[in-house]
Every structure is written in C-alpha cells, then in structure tokens.
C-alpha cells in the first residue's frame, strides 16, 4: 500500500523544496544534476519516472493526491520538447539555410547554428539506419520532405568548400554516395 504524502516526510520535504525552487525560478524544471540541491534534482526525476510508470499501467509510488499537488505548482511531467515540433522547426531552419546558401550542406559544426548542423548529421544517420532496416526515427514522410528541398543524404565535398577553406565541413562516405544513388540523386559536378 502506498503512503499518502503526509505519511512520507521525505516526499514532503522535497515537495516544499520544489515549491521554493518554483517561487525562485518561475518553473519546476529542476536539472537532474542540480548542484545547489542534488537530492531535489534526483527527486524531480523520480517523480517524472513514477508518472511514466503510472501512465503505462505499472505500479507506481505516485498517488492521485501527489499528482494533484505537483500540478498545483505547474509541475512539468515531460521536459523534452515534442519530437514532431522539434523536427518541423529544424526543417524550417534548414529551408532558411538553403535559401541563404543555395544548398542543404550544413556543416556539422556550423558556428551560426550548431544545433542545425547536428540535426542535419542526425538526419543522415537516421536515414542510413532506416535503409538498413534498423530502428530509426526517420520516416518516409520525413525523407520525402527533405528530398523536396534537395537534401543530400551523404555529405560531399562541394566546390564552395574547396575554394573557401572548408567553409562547408564535409564527410566522405562510400555508403552515403550509394544511398544518394539508390534514391536517384546524382552528384553534380
């Protein structure tokens, strides 16, 4: 049998610490490795994990009362952004990049937007996994959207990168060229 919050002094102590954190910061997104109060960071992570277990139908120490109390202070059950929104936002950023530079060859370490460079690299890696029949976040719809704006599935050297002292960071990968060929992309020369 699960104790009520009032019967669990440890839960109460952390809940009050969370309320103080929320008053100070305006939110309940305590970092998992919160240096000022590591115990609070772990406790918040545990509440999210217990909530996930409960939602999946598994036993959980999280009661309806605890959920109500946490929600009364605007507790955030998920700290990760929705993957679809994130993908769509990065896709729009890639379209802006293409309009600016004329291609989708974002350097992996693109200083103006490092997250976009990482995202583009991730799309190539996820596409390769999908082609190999492995678990992947890439879908045919995403691949088609990327194809529609001239995305290359393998980074390749461009004349701009050679003449502009590696302005475009590139990777040479035989598998990547094969992937481009397999979907009908022809390398321009």
TrEMBL record:
Key word Cell inner membrane present: no
Coiled-coil regions listed: none
Keyword terms, alphabetized: ATP-binding, Helicase, Hydrolase, Nucleotide-binding
Annotated Helicase-associated domain residues: 10-75, 86-151
Region: Disordered, residue numbers: 162-189
Top-level taxon: Eukaryota
Keyword ATP-binding included in the entry's annotation: yes
GO molecular function, one term: helicase activity
Protein name: Helicase-associated domain-containing protein
Upper classification of the organism: Eukaryota, Sar, Stramenopiles, Ochrophyta, Bacillariophyta
């Amino acid at each position: 049998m699960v104790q009520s919050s009032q019967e669990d002094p440890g839960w109460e102590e952390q809940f009050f610490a969370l309320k103080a954190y929320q008053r100070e910061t305006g939110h309940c997104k305590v970092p998992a490795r919160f240096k000022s109060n590591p115990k609070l960071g772990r406790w918040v992570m545990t509440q999210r994990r217990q909530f996930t277990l409960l939602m999946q139908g598994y036993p959980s120490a999280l009661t309806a009362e605890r959920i109500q109390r946490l929600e009364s202070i605007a507790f955030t059950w998920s700290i990760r952004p929705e993957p679809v929104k994130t993908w769509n936002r990065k896709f729009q950023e890639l379209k802006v990049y293409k309009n600016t530079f004329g291609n989708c060859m974002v350097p992996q370490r693109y200083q103006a937007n490092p997250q976009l460079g990482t995202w583009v690299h991730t799309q190539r890696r996820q596409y390769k996994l999908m082609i190999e029949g492995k678990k992947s976040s890439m879908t045919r719809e995403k691949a088609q959207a990327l194809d529609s704006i001239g995305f290359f599935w393998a980074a390749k050297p461009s004349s701009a990168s050679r003449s502009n002292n590696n302005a475009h960071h590139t990777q040479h990968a035989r598998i990547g060229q094969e992937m481009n060929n397999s979907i009908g992309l022809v390398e321009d020369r």
